[in-house]
Design goal:
alpha+beta, two-stranded antiparallel sheet, globular, 32% helix
């Protein structure tokens, strides 16, 4: 097992053990994306990610954290395990 996968497994185990973990998912590569949009009354369906860029969403965690500091602490463990930036956001309408 690759070291980053092992470290990520440890973080996920701890998330579940503390009750913070609610849901997570890994996403397929950006090339597998379909973009659906409305334009002039028509629905357009095109290949590829919505935005071109070097970074893409590879997956997400939905966790329950006491506050932003706690959420950032979990994100710090994930970014240390996988070596890529982590974005932290509250669900809309659930800000403290």
């Amino acid at each position: 097992m690759h070291r980053s996968h092992q470290l990520l497994g440890e973080v996920e185990k701890d998330l579940k053990a503390t009750g913070a973990w609610l849901f997570s998912a890994r996403l397929s590569e950006p090339g597998a994306a379909r973009v659906v949009r409305e334009s002039g009354g028509d629905v357009l369906n095109t290949d590829g990610p919505f935005a071109e860029g070097k970074e893409h969403l590879g997956g997400f965690y939905l966790i329950e954290a006491e506050d932003l500091d706690a959420a950032v602490a979990w994100a710090a463990r994930v970014t240390a395990a996988i070596g890529v930036p982590i974005e932290v956001r509250p669900l809309a309408g659930f800000e403290a």
